[in-house]
Q: What sequence folds into this?
């Protein structure tokens, strides 16, 4: 009887560990697709240790060509870079994150193939006919509450049709609760603030970039401060005059400035906190950068 009770308690404990230890990837450890594709749950609720989606975490998935331009069409068989980025605008102690990304055709089949660079702390897990890109371990980023993961994607064969990208990112950190003498590190409360990215669609085409991303020639541009709060400064050694456009995650122009003596200052204080695309244009070049508004 005692042996049976011990085995039951042991099994329950192990089950609890399994359900609460998806730090190595929900698809890999739990067979779970959290991106929302193919009927998978588009949140981190359910089995596991995380809660519902929160609007204070802003997540975005973008696909880039070899020149650094954001694409809306893909060329069959070409390899691109996918980036999932996120920022939490409320918490102040989020230093790690996990994520998942999937790419799906209109018939719910896998679209193309993902590749992870050697040494990256990411993995590709096959699940239900899909490839799920996710973290191997909790990932860190150099800027608190600003998170990014990048990997390669090779587009499917000609005739495959539209491709939809799904993503979810989960920033985590400690609550800031100060431990008492009777507590240890295991008693610290974890903050978990996941959210899904808007689904993006790439149509099959010739791979041209969209209107806000044509090339990524740096031209010596520096953006500061980044992250910024009140104003963004853009400066370069390039002799040409240039215009600066600020694009929201939805693709709309929310800020504009024109250079004077190779310098441009744009007011950012009225914009919501989050990630923005900065497009610098002249007659001869277009430069694409990002800025975080805190």
A:
């Amino acid at each position: 009887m005692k042996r049976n009770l011990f085995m039951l308690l042991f099994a329950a404990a192990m089950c609890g560990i399994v359900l609460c230890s998806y730090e190595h990837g929900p698809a890999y450890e739990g067979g779970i697709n959290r991106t929302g594709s193919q009927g998978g749950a588009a949140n981190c609720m359910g089995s596991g240790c995380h809660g519902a989606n929160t609007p204070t975490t802003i997540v975005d998935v973008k696909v880039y060509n070899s020149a650094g331009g954001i694409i809306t069409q893909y060329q069959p068989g070409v390899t691109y870079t996918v980036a999932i980025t996120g920022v939490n605008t409320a918490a102040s102690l989020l230093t790690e994150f996990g994520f998942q990304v999937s790419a799906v055709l209109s018939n719910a089949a896998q679209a193309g193939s993902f590749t992870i660079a050697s040494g990256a702390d990411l993995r590709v897990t096959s699940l239900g006919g899909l490839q799920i890109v996710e973290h191997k371990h909790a990932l860190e980023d150099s800027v608190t509450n600003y998170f990014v993961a990048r990997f390669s994607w090779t587009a499917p064969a000609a005739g495959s049709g539209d491709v939809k990208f799904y993503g979810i990112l989960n920033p985590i950190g400690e609550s800031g609760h100060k431990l008492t003498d009777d507590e240890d590190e295991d008693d610290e409360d974890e903050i978990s603030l996941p959210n899904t990215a808007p689904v993006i669609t790439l149509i099959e085409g010739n791979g041209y970039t969209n209107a806000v991303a044509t090339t990524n020639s740096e031209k010596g541009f520096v953006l500061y401060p980044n992250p910024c709060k009140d104003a963004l400064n853009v400066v370069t050694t390039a002799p040409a005059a240039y215009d600066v456009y600020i694009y929201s995650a939805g693709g709309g122009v929310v800020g504009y400035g024109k250079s004077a003596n190779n310098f441009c200052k744009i007011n950012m204080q009225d914009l919501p906190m989050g990630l923005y695309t900065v497009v610098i244009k002249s007659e001869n070049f277009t430069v694409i950068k990002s800025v975080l508004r805190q």
Q: What stands out?
A: The chain has two domains: 22-204, 222-293.
